Amino acid sequence: MLDTASYWNRPVEGLFALLETTPDGLTSSEAARRRALFGPNALEFEEKATVLGAFASQFRNAIMLILLFATGISAVLQDWVDAAIILAIVLGSAFR
Asked: Alpha carbon 78 to chain centroid distance?
């Protein structure tokens, strides 16, 4: 594995030696060899999040879960005003 730590602080010649290249770049055969060894130089894309998935991800932190729990407790105790206020805070935060 290459030691690329502090690459910005190395002389250019040292980087060329480290990466086994030249200022002109790689030859076609060397590029093909490296592609076969390391695979294509391509980014891997993750599946795009849906609107519903993005909305649901808002509820994956502790504060939101505590507020939802407090909403449930207020509803069980039939304290509808507090339940509505807490739910409004949760939904307002989720839609930001």
From this structure: 40
